[in-house]
Amino acid sequence: MIPCFALAFWFIASASAQYPVKKGTSNIVSTLPDANKIVLPPSVPDPFEPFNRGVWLFNRVLLSDVVKPTAKGYRVVVRKPVRTAINNFGRNIAYPVRLVNNLLQRKWTGARDETDRFFCNSIAGVAGFMDVATKLNIPKSDADFGQTLGQWGWKPQIYLMLPIYGPSNERDTVGLAADTAANPLTYISPYSFDAADPLTYISPYTYLSYGLMYNSLSDTVDDYARFAQTEADPYSEIQYAWTFVRKNRVADFRVKGKQDPATLETLETVFFKPKDLSFPDRGRTRMVYLPSTHHELRYTTWMQKDKAAIVYIVPGLGSHRLADTALALAELVYDQGYSVVTVSSPYNWEFMKEASTAAMPAYTPVDVHDLHVALTAINARLERIYPGRIGQKAVLGYSMGGFEAMFLAGAETTNARPLLKFDRYVGINSPVRLLYGVNKLDEFYNAPLAWPAKERTADIENTFLKVAAFTQNSLRPNTTLPFDEVESKFLIGLVFRLNLRDIIFVSQDRHNQHVLKQELNGWHRGPVYDEILQYSYEDYFQKFVIPYYRKRGIDLSAPDALEKASDLRTYASALAANPNIRLMVNRNDFLLPPEDLAWLQSIFPPERLKVFEQGGHLGNLANPTVQKTIVGMLDGLRPVAPAPPVKKSSPAQNAAPVPVPGTLK
Hints:
By secondary structure, the chain is of the alpha/beta class. It folds into three domains: 2-245, no CATH class; 261-270 and 444-553, no CATH class; 283-433 and 566-632, 3-Layer(aba) Sandwich (Rossmann fold), CATH 3.40.50.1820. It has 26 helices and ten strands. The chain has helices at 2-16, 49-77, 80-93, 95-104, 108-123, 132-135, 145-151, 170-182, 207-217, 221-230, 234-245, 261-267, 279-282, 324-334, 349-354, 364-385, 400-410, 434-445, 453-470, 485-510, 526-532, 537-550, 561-565, 572-577, 594-603, 624-632, and strands spanning 159-162, 166-169, 284-290, 295-302, 308-314, 339-342, 390-398, 424-428, 581-586, 609-612. The protein has an eight-stranded mixed beta sheet, with helices on both faces. The two termini are 47 Å apart.
């Protein structure tokens, strides 16, 4: 079951996860006719959600506090080739499970292939410790009793979170018992069977099976733990993803409509990850007290041993400081001799709870001011911890973080001490207008409205099945993704709708405006999630943000008030006059319409603005040429420590600035 847990995680991480819904209903609540609304495929019902969340919490603690720390030592003692050999042995000895289920599912070719693999690996592979069959191109045909029961017509009715084994349902739990009975390891025990001895019943598996499970987890537990740490509600995402990971239906990989290069390139963002798998754990997470909120904010550092310029990385909308893109950028910059700090986005649940003076993000002057206060406090603390080792300072943001970095640069002349002054402002794929960007995300989420209403939900399910199938294989950059324009746009819109869900839930949990009718219950979130998902980004601004700020003396309902406050063109003169700005954009970025690109080119000379023709939104970050450009935008900062070896593994342009109000309590 652990491998399936991993598939669910990777499914989520690849931007396809959603939220729990009641069977037979949509988690999009709408008064529009069916032809004009998105109805997502239902997940397996979760009637025991509070109990399942408790088990998930147990699993999370077990992974983070037991398996992860011990796995570090285990990996030192048991080297990678040995761990791989143990995994190979574990799979090989479970051959009877796959044979029986391939036969029961009438997969005759699969049964033959698994038999060929078993004898090949058992003989030539020394009891299965070496996977000779794969080198001989003999395909795998994984099968288990849960799949067999599904093929025989058993449709799951109850979602279950099992201790240790992770997500399941009543069908797969029965299948797990049958898999156990068919696994030879079940009958190899370190103790004799004794009906009166409790050890006999401690688990359906013996210590040997748990050892194999631990060995497998030792290489993936860091990703599991980081996923649980970075997501606002990882349980709900796993719950929905599990539905499609365990679907007994083969995806139709045909591309029925035209493809959209910009959004397909955007999906390739998933390939930009740290090259050195140990890099995330080499960072040190600290906390800094913020008087403005009376809370401590977490941040993560990678410090050079000698004095070096320091780069503060601000991630995209809703992203966590330990998200893959933030970590990959941190590694890229650190390997060039810079010290690095990552913080979570002002739209992320962590920043909202710990550093935001407003109950909800949306009003850029307040959000960026809170970010600036946090970075100032972090820098002051680092100066105390590492005296004499902090050189010049840069802020590097991508996507929404790039927008916020540019906003900081535009407001530089109005920022009073003791707010931190930066020596370089770097933006990657920054939008120019926030409201244009979020409206585009709403548009993408509604892209499936182009499909016939009767087929729409089934087509969305097929899109999810495609993603689930792809995430079970090792993807490489430049892989041809089988998504048409509607599918690729929808997947992007879905990810940001997930961010909006978290933003609304966290904001209302902090400051309940009583807009939502359902109870805000952290242990039973399904009903309130269903309700939240009726809200678009436009609804969020109109029904939550504007009323909130109106009560605090800021009228954002006035014509152009919110738009002007969230538009870089408001700061055109200051941006043009700031020589320390560096910006990189893509011409086919869907968040950057031609008129906004033309505006950027009108105020920034070529040496301060790099335009790539392709890449969509952040989709070309894995490209070496793009990475060289990113590093080049930091040139001139001093000092820079010796780089360590890289391990493989149309408002008026001169409008007056919007004043930054004081912190909101």
